[in-house]
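Q: Start with the shorter request: fold the first protein.
A: Done. Sequence, then structure:
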Amino acid sequence: MASLRIAPALRAKAAPSSSRPLVSKRFGHDLIVQPSRNQAPKPVIRHGPPTGGRSSVSGHTVTVFGCTGFLGRYLVHKIAKAGAGSLCRTGTRMRRGICGLWEWDARNPEQIRECLRYSDMVYNLVGRDWETRNFNYHDANVASAQLIASIAADHGTPRLVHVSHLNAAPDSASTFYQSKYESERAVRDAFPEATIARPAGMYGAEDWYLNAMARYPILYRLNHGRTKVLPVHVLDVAEALSTMLEAPITSTASTFALPGPAVHTYNSMLSLVAGMSMHPPTTAPSVPKPVAKLFASVINRALWWPTVSPDEIERKYIDDFGAAALLAEGAEEKPAGWEVAVEAKRVGVDGEEVKSWKELDIEPDYIEEHAIKYLRRYRSPANFDQPVELGHFKPPKHYHVLP
C-alpha cells in the first residue's frame, strides 16, 4: 500500500520539467488605444482566450443604463461574453465578464456619477414610449439623457453611445419621436463625441411587436394596415452596439441608422403572424383614428398599468424612415438595410452623414428567419410541431476587423 501511495510522487519527481515559459503571447490586435476627453489616451489590452468568453478580459469597463430593458439584456450578454466588465441600471458595471447591478435615479446626479465612475464606455438605453404621472416624454427621454451625457463629459468618460429611434425627427407628428430627436440634440450638446444609434422597431423573444400582433391585431389594423415598417431583430441591434465598443474610429461622433433589411406593412406582418401561429387571418376592423385616440385617452387614464396611449395610436400612422424610398419603383433590394440614395437624404443631428450596417460589417436578419421561434407558442397542441420552411440563406462572412 505504501508503494502505491508514493508512486505518483516518484513519477512526478522523475518527470522532466517543461522548458516552455509560462507567459502568454500578446499580439498587435490585442491592443486598443481608447481616446479620452480630459486625459491621455488609455491602452486597453485583452487577456485570456483569443476567442473571448466570460473567462477572458477585454480590458473594458462598461456602464449600461437601461440594462433591464428589452434591448439592454441582450447587449449586456454580448459584451459580458466578450470579457468586458459591466455596470447596469439598476446601472450595470462589468469587469472580466462579471455584471454588477447598481440602483440609480434618473434625477440623482450623484448616483449616475457613481455608476460610471470606473467606466471607459457608457451605453444609454433609457427611454419610455408612454407617459406616466411622474415622467413625461421629456423627463424620460430628454432630461435623463442630457444628465447622463453631461456627467459623463465632466467625469472624462472616453465614449458614450446613446440609443434613439429611426424615426426621430423634430417635426414628427408623434411627441415620442420628437423627444427622441431632442434627446440626440441634448446628448451632442453635452458630449460632442457621442455615438447615436437609431434602430427601427425591434422584435425578439419578449417583444411588444410580434407578441402584440398575435394578441391584439386590431392595433395593427389602424390606417387599414398600410403603414410601412422596417422591423429589425433585437440581437442584430445588440451586436451592432457591442461592435461599436471595439471600433472607436468607426463609431465616435457618428450616427447609425439600424433598420431591418426588408420593408413590410402591418397587413403583411399580420399575415406572417397568422401563418406562423397557424391561425386564420384576422378579421379585426380598421378603427378610425379619432375614435382610437379617444379610447386610448380614456383607458390610459383609467388604468395605472401601461396599455395604449394616444401617441402610440399616432405612431401607427407613421411610416418608418426610408421605407417609401426602398419600395420605390426600380429600387434594388438592399439586404444590408439602406439604399445609398436613402442614406444621403438623412443626416445626423449635427449634419454628419448617417452610417448603417455596412460600416459595422453586419448584415441584419430577415424577420421570416426568426418569427417562428417567438410565435410557435401561439399554436394549438395539434399543430405545435409542424415544420416551417425558410426562404433566405446568408452566406458565410469573411473575417474582418473594424478600426
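Q: Next, the second protein, separately.
A: Sequence, then structure:
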Amino acid sequence: MVDAQRPIPILAVNIGVLALQGSFREHIALLRRLPGVNASEVRNRQQLLASDGLIIPGGESTTMANIAERWGLIPDLQQFAQAENPLWGTCAGLIFLANRAVGQKVGGQALLGGLDCLVHRNFFGAQIRSFEALMPMPPCFADASNAPFRAVFIRAPAILESGPGVEVLSTYELDADEQQQAKGQKSVAVAVRAGNLMATAFHPELTDDVRWHAVFVALVRERLATRQHSATSVEQGVEATAEAETGSRLAPVWQRNRPADLPVFRSASSFAAAEINVGQTSRLPPTFERSLLPFASVVLRSMRRPALRQSETDQQQASSLNIQLLPP
C-alpha cells in the first residue's frame, strides 16, 4: 500500500558540465537549484566517467573543440555518447554534437557527432545581432502554467535539416532576411532531441528559468533507472540459473538430464516398492519384469540383504523369472 503522506524518494544524479571554455559556471549554478542533483566541472576522463549525464555549454565552439583535442578528450567524449549517456549541448554544444555543420572557420573543427542534423554555425549573425525572444515551452514537457521561456540567442547557430530520428522541440519563425539566408525556409529548429542527446541553439543557463535543466535531469534519471532495472533483471536471471544448476546437481542421478517418462525410469519407483515388499508378495510388479529384468541380478546383488537370499519364496520367484541370485 502506498503512503500518500510519504514523499517519493528522488534518485540522486551526478551531472557534469564540460568546463573547457564558455558558460559552464552558469549551468552549474542552475543545476544546483534542482533537488537531488550534484553538479560538477568536467575537464578529464575520470571526471567524465563519474557523471551520469553531461552538458556541453555555450561558448566559442572552435576554441572548445581545439582544447578538447589538445587534452585528448575527443575520444572519451565520443565513447561517453556512444554508451548512450545523456548529453545536452547549448549553442556551441549544439554544433559540437551535430553530424554536419556549415559556416565554420577555415580548417573546420572537430565534431563529436551523434545528432543527425545539419547545423549552420553563426546563422543569426555576429555578436551585434544577438537577441532574446519569448518562446512557448514544448507541449511534451510544458509545466502546469504553460508559461513561455526566455530564449537568449548569442551569435547563435540554427538547425537547417534534421534526420527522421530527431524530434524537433522548438522552432523559430524567420523574418524576410533570415528566410533568404535559409534558402526560403520560413522557420528553423532551435531545440531538438534524439535518444540520449538533446541540443538547444539558445542559452537557458543565462536566465533564471530552470525548466530546461529539469528536463535534462529527468532524461538522466530515466536512463539511470532503466540501467538499474536492466542490471537487476540480469542479476536475477543469473541467480535463477545458478539455483537451477544447483538443484540439478542435488537431484538423484537417474533424474538428471533424463527423459523421466521413459518406461525404464518410470519403473524405478516400482522397483523400489518391490524391493521393500519382496518378502511379502508372491509376484514382482509387471513393470519390474518387463523393464528391469536385464538389470535384476546386478541390483539384487547390491542390496546385500542375507534374508532376501535365504528366503525359499524368493528363490522360487527368482527361478520363475530366470534370475540367478548371486552371493553377497
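Q: Describe the second briefly.
A: The chain has two domains: 13-230, 254-320. The first strand starts at residue 13 and ends at 18.
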